[in-house]
Amino acid sequence: MKIGQAAQASGVSQRMIRHYEAIGLIPAPARRDSNYRDYSPADVHRLRFIANARDLGFDTQEIGELLALWDDGGRASAEVKKLALARAEALHVKARKLEAMRKTLLDLAGRCAGGDRPDCPIIDELAG
Question: What is this structure's pTM?
């Protein structure tokens, strides 16, 4: 199937499919006589795997590791679990930081009169 069909079937944009090829997450597909890429059902399955891993917050390097584990029939599930737990912890840290940022913004907004006057604690905080 052509790249547009693979994109539609996998839910991954054509631009991202080309990017994943360029960085080696998916192998370069066969080319038709017309030089169009020709994706197989296995390629689409791999693209879905990548999209699912992305949706769970895995970065490109981690996705590469997960793909290698997926391709390895003799893998130890402990390795997969280790990656998942590390990503879960990183997301937890990020969530705490985002919540702190949200609270700061709400506090600043609460102290801002929001009227026609130029004085604003939000601007003052950003400038400080």
Answer: 0.82
